[in-house]
Amino acid sequence: MSEVTPIRSVEQIEAEIAAARERLATTVDELHTRTAPKEIARRQAESLKAKFTEATQTESGDLRTERIAALAAAAVALIGLGAWRRHRG
Description:
It is a single chain. This protein is mostly helical. The chain has one domain. It is built from 3 helices and no strands. It is elongated. The termini are far apart.
């Protein structure tokens, strides 16, 4: 059995095409915005900030001093290693 396709007027077809173009233009604009280098950098910075906050603060907002101390010690060790390598080499 074949389905009967309703007959559409030229105006209806043109309206459907215009609506499809508008949806396509909106989608292209969204993709352009999402893939813009500044937007990608902004999202990455936001993600990094959230991860850093999660790692250094408790859910109530208190600092996790043991983690901050460990990060500071690692930073000092890396700076010291770099200075030692420059002095040696």
